[in-house]
Specification:
Chondroitinase Ac, Chain A, domain 3; Immunoglobulin-like; 7-stranded antiparallel β-sheet; 6-stranded mixed β-sheet; 10 helices; 11% helix
């Protein structure tokens, strides 16, 4: 098949490019048209051979005269006119092809021709676009098929180390082999020149700028800013991590060390290609100095890890670690988080403005719906997370996994009677007054069924919130009163708070197993202090508390009353066993209000049936007089000792007849009586017969709950107070007292019978007593000593003693007082200057008119006296005049001294 190739030239004035069209004509008259756009290269010299495509054509095509550019009018409004002119010189056999080409080429208005001083080839040997308008230019005899130009060659080295190149729109220019690429998407003037210079950053600049390498690119141009637009590709070292990479720039090299001059290319205009190790910026319209930077690195953790599994509404601690370069645009002044599908929340974390790595943490709330969620963290360079201040972001994929709370296994009940049972009652709006009354009656019957056993109860009620009505006690009357005090409710259903409040009463007796009986008729919808949540979260929060209760060894029995609740929720709270044949094995019991009493009665029988237990009291049977620990009993042949509440463990027995006796009495008590009872409704039945120190012939059936009350009489004691005055004195001393059986009294310590020196208080019950002595002038309390007391304390400063009297104790306490004394000094001064001959010992004195006392030879007498006021005198002596200094009403302090001087002159 012969092929005819006809070169056809059409000028497209808008782009200054020349289109080469080759019509391929087959011998059978069928034709194809191939059109490619490229800058026309300089015509080859006449002696050059034709392109390869022409050399290989066979047979040789007949010569066709090329169309001169001159034949196409410069004033032509569109390429269509040029095609019409061409048709006149092209054989009719390809006219149809031309018609098809017309349809594909859009009309283009030819712009005004740009005048140039000269028409030359550029450095790459290409004809400049302006040369295409030279009317004297003739097309080559045969033009080769053009390929898209990458413009990777043609750089001209300059003396300052930079390189320049002429550029046109639509072409990409690679700076030598550096990897830096510039592709122009628009040049208003058609062409221009750019210059590129590589700048090596100092190590300090690399750190301050956060640069990913030590290279910066200084790009300049002879084109005015805004008259062009280009895409810039900056290379980075191979395998560099580019997350959060950005492009920063400065206008001058001197600005590289001035953080105030650093600017950032818009985030939305920057793309990262880690496979090619490139960072690309688009829509640039001016040249400057560019650097690839990663000045801020943001890392996030949830509860210390990259992923956390939580329950609905659980608190999560988010930790953000941010590395800063110290540049002002990269300060860390606020943070924002967003859980997938949730709102964006700003956190004003502490400000960080210097280079370094910083860590801040804050708490967020997990979603309430089950599922897996991404967590987006953002660091901002401005406070308040402004829309224009977004800096860096990390999306933690699948960071939060929200799952339903997994219930812990429910501890098994021990095979013994005597538990600490926390009753938790729902009194929300859904329970009317009649239903509440029925629930109360059932609970009271349950309490009565276990009365006398070593069982204690606490009572908690809940609605929107919860409160403890009664802490643990064995006082059946107090528990029943607490149950009756629960009002007809109002409010929503808060399982979590009900369990929390009940949990606060647990661990009442460390050696006793805990059981929580949780009764509700509805599904939960509140948590915390009444916060409204959906049912799934409310259940999940309650299960967290239930798990905590069970992890500490307590069992939960969930009572679902009525048809208004989801049994699955109760199973999550307690366990999977529902309505077992043995209620003691059930985790969940679904009941209705009328049957609740029977269900609880069955539970009491299942836990305590066929047992005997003992309660120890002193003087009378009530909670105040429980005997405490240490009492030993023989219970159906088994030795049991009472606990701090005066109760023994229950003893499990087969059906039969048994006896219970007290085998060891504590000091200070005497056996008084004992009685045993079988639990029954409406009142308990006394059973058995009196025997020595106990009860015998006690019938016990397999489901009977039996308890015995033992009462011992307290042996009474005495307290004796004795006064010991040193020296013995008629001074009266008064006393005050506290404690049943004591009263105020007075004592002295002399030989008369007016007051005794002893006071005795007999027939005292055990208890605490205090005796205090009132202060007496001139007397000090020296000591308080007690005999026969096992537990007492004294306080000399407060002049008192406190006695904890045990049963049968007889205690004597002695208060010893000593009189307060001081030193009275009496001096004698004798002057013999007129013939007198007497000396000090020749004179006498008396104190307060008492007996005469001769002066010592040295003229000074020191007398020990009671603290007080005294007057000293001496009888007149012939031939001597007497004078007194400080001798009348002289005060002698306790423990101190006072001096009187008497002078005699002849």
């Amino acid at each position: 098949m012969a092929i005819l190739m006809i070169p056809i030239f059409v000028i497209q004035m808008s782009s200054l490019n020349l289109f080469l069209m080759q019509a391929v004509i087959a011998e059978d008259g069928e034709s194809d048209v191939v059109a490619e756009s490229e800058e026309i290269k300089e015509a080859p010299p006449e002696e050059e051979s034709a392109p390869d495509e022409i050399e290989k054509s066979d047979p040789p095509k007949e010569e066709v005269k090329p169309v001169n550019v001159e034949e196409v009018s410069k004033e032509s409004p569109a390429d269509e006119d040029a095609l019409v002119a061409l048709e006149e010189i092209i054989p009719n056999s390809i006219s149809e092809v031309i018609d098809e080409v017309k349809e594909e080429i859009p009309p283009v208005v030819a712009p005004e021709i740009i005048q140039e001083e000269a028409v030359e080839n550029d450095e790459g040997g290409r004809i400049t676009p302006e040369a295409a308008y030279d009317e004297n230019l003739e097309a080559p005899a045969q033009a080769p098929v053009a390929e898209e130009s990458k413009a990777e060659e043609g750089w001209r080295d300059n003396s300052d180390g930079s390189s320049s190149i002429m550029v046109t729109a639509g072409n990409e220019y690679t700076y030598k082999d550096s990897g830096l690429k510039i592709k122009f998407t628009r040049i208003d003037n058609g062409t221009g020149e750019i210059t590129v210079k590589e700048i090596e950053l100092t190590p300090e600049q690399v750190i301050e700028l956060g640069a990913l390498s030590n290279k910066a690119w200084d790009i300049t141009s002879d084109m005015a800013d805004g008259t062009f637009e280009y895409v810039l590709t900056l290379p980075v070292e191979e395998n560099t991590k580019l997350e959060n990479a950005e492009i920063i720039y400065v206008e001058n090299k001197e600005d590289l060390s001035d953080k105030d001059k650093i600017k950032t290319v818009k985030e939305e205009d920057v793309k990262v290609d880690e496979e090619k190790d490139e960072v690309v910026a688009e829509k640039l319209d001016h040249f400057t100095i560019y650097i690839v930077s990663k000045t801020v690195k943001l890392f996030g953790q949830v509860n210390g890890s990259s992923q956390v599994t939580v329950t609905p509404g659980e608190m999560i601690t988010v930790t953000m670690e941010v590395q800063l370069s110290g540049n002002e645009p990269n300060d860390w002044l606020s943070s924002r988080y967003q859980i997938e599908g949730g709102i964006q929340t700003c956190v004003n974390t502490p400000d960080h403005i210097d280079s370094g790595t910083y860590t801040e943490s804050f708490d967020i709330t997990a979603p309430t719906n089950l599922g897996t969620y991404d967590l987006t963290l953002r660091a901002y360079d401005q406070s308040g997370c402004p829309s224009g201040g977004k800096r860096d972001e990390e999306i933690m994929q699948n960071a939060i996994i929200v799952v339903a709370t997994t219930p812990f296994a429910n501890p098994a009940l021990p095979e013994s009677c005597g538990l600490d049972i926390a009753l938790v009652l729902d009194n929300s709006t859904s329970i009317d007054s009649g239903e509440l009354s029925t629930m109360k009656s059932a609970m009271i019957s349950f309490v009565n069924a276990l009365a006398g056993t070593p069982t204690q109860f606490s009572v908690t009620r809940f609605a929107t919130t919860a409160s403890v009505v009664q802490n643990f006690t064995s006082d059946t009357a107090a528990v029943i009163s607490a149950i009756n005090s629960i009002p007809v409710g109002g409010g929503y259903t808060n399982w979590e708070d009900g369990l929390l409040e009940a949990q606060s009463t647990l661990s009442n007796r460390s050696e006793i197993f805990d059981l929580v009986i949780f009764a509700s008729d509805g599904n939960p919808n509140r948590v915390d202090n009444g916060t409204s949540v959906d049912e799934s979260q409310a259940v999940s929060e309650a299960v967290l508390v239930a798990n905590d209760i069970k992890s500490n060894g307590a069992r939960i029995l969930a009572l679902g009353i009525g048809n208004g609740l989801d049994t699955a929720n109760l199973i999550a709270l307690s366990g999977p066993v529902v309505n077992a044949s043995d209620i003691a094995d059930s985790d969940v019991v679904t009941s209705n209000f009328p049957d609740l009493a029977n269900d609880l009665g069955a539970f009491a029988s299942a836990t305590c049936g066929g047992t005997i237990s003992v309660n120890k009291y002193y003087d009378q049977v009530d909670e105040v007089h429980r005997g405490g620990s240490g009492w030993i009993f023989d219970v159906a042949g088994t030795s049991k000792t009472t606990d701090s509440n005066g109760q023994t463990e229950s003893v499990k027995v087969d059906a039969g007849t048994y006896s219970v006796t007290e085998t060891s009495l504590l000091s200070g008590y005497t056996y008084d009586s004992a009685s045993c009872y079988k639990v029954a409704s409406p009142s308990h039945i006394e059973i058995g017969e009196d025997i020595t120190n106990g009860v015998g012939n006690i019938p016990v059936g397999n489901s009977d709950i039996v308890y015995c009350n033992f009462v011992n009489t307290t042996n009474k004691g005495s307290i004796t107070i004795t006064k010991d005055a040193v020296p013995n004195d008629a001074q009266d001393f008064s006393f005050t007292t506290t404690g049943t059986g004591l009263s105020s009294f007075s004592l002295d310590d002399d030989s008369d019978a007016t007051l005794s020196n002893t006071k005795v208080f007999n027939n005292l019950m055990p208890g605490t007593f205090s005796i205090s002595e009132n202060s007496v002038n001139d007397w000090n309390l020296d000591d308080i000593s007690c005999t026969g007391a096992s537990d007492f304390s004294k306080d000399i400063n407060s002049r008192s003693v406190t006695i904890n009297l045990k049963p049968g104790e007889n205690i004597t306490c002695t208060f010893t007082n000593k009189i307060q004394t001081g030193t009275l000094i009496v001096k004698k001064v004798v002057t013999n200057d007129n013939g007198g001959m007497k000396i000090a010992s020749d004179f006498t004195f008396s104190v307060d008119g008492g007996s005469a006392v001769a002066f010592e030879a040295d003229g000074q007498n020191e007398l020990t006296v009671s603290a007080g006021t005294y007057s000293i005198t001496e009888p007149a002596v012939s031939g001597y005049a007497t004078t007194y200094e400080n001798c009348t009403n002289i005060a002698v302090p306790n423990g101190g001294s006072a001096t009187c001087t008497i002078k005699n002159d002849d």
